[in-house]
Amino acid sequence: MFAAILIDKNDSGQTVARTELADDRLPEGDVTIDVAYSTINYKDGLAITGKSPVVRKFPMVPGIDLAGTVAQSAHGDWKTGDRVVLNGWGVGETHWGGLAQRARVKGDWLVPLEAAFSLRQAMAIGTAGYTASLCVEALMRHGVRPGQGDVLVTGATGGVGSVAIALLARAGFAVTAATGKAAEADYLKQLGAGAIIDRNELAAAGKPLQKERWAAVVDSVGSHTLANACAQTRYGGAVAACGLAQGMDFPASVAPFILRGISLLGIDSVMAPRAPRLAAWQRLARDLDPAVLETIATDIGLGAVIESARQLMDGTVRGRFVVDVNG
Predict the structure, then answer these.
(1) pTM confidence score
(2) CATH no. for 2-113+293-324
């Protein structure tokens, strides 16, 4: 038996609870993992609260992230005792995920945990931090370099924003953080932000072409925020878009693209191939100060997941929840 968060649905609606499950209920897969830590991402919050139809199959164990140790393997790349991380691949949506003490998955979905990190630190990073690293990698491949101007990070106190600020600052960029939480200014400066703006400056409909402010942008918000960020990006700059906290819409104009030559870089963390995943984790191991993770992380046990997911959806959370599934 193992403990898990289980979401189910019937004619009366959705239910979610911490429960005990037998190993024979685990889904198909060639690697079984003793999960040590998971986390709660925005998508997990949507699934657990039922605010969006994220879950495609019921019953479902949520959790798009996990870090643990291989217990059994029929996959050539993995053996018992290997430390592994899983981000995305539909777990927590179509395949049972990481908010449980045991998981069974496809070995192709796993990557080795970098030696620089503990299992707990891996989930302080999680999909949010891994996505932030994908964004920084994409901007660097585009040719964005320190000294070209400020880089804007929206949703700055969230998991993606927090790690993006830390990685960009470590790489030598001047970072401006956009947030609606003025009280978190010291936290953002500690991560490496040199300037802070109110998110309301970007949240409403704006002109299709605005004053050039940013050499590049990491955006996890979408909607009007993303449109305004594009409208304010300098000639030849780039915007890495990876989220939809404000909305999935993109009420923008082609003007920034055809008059300033900016590039909009779509960042997908869910189905990303192995090579960019490994590069993203290698950047995190190289450039992310472990002390930053202690600033970002809030530790909870499996029993606190449901209430913590509600807090995440209410927008009252800073940084990352790290879920000790055995705690």
Answers:
(1) 0.91
(2) 3.90.180.10
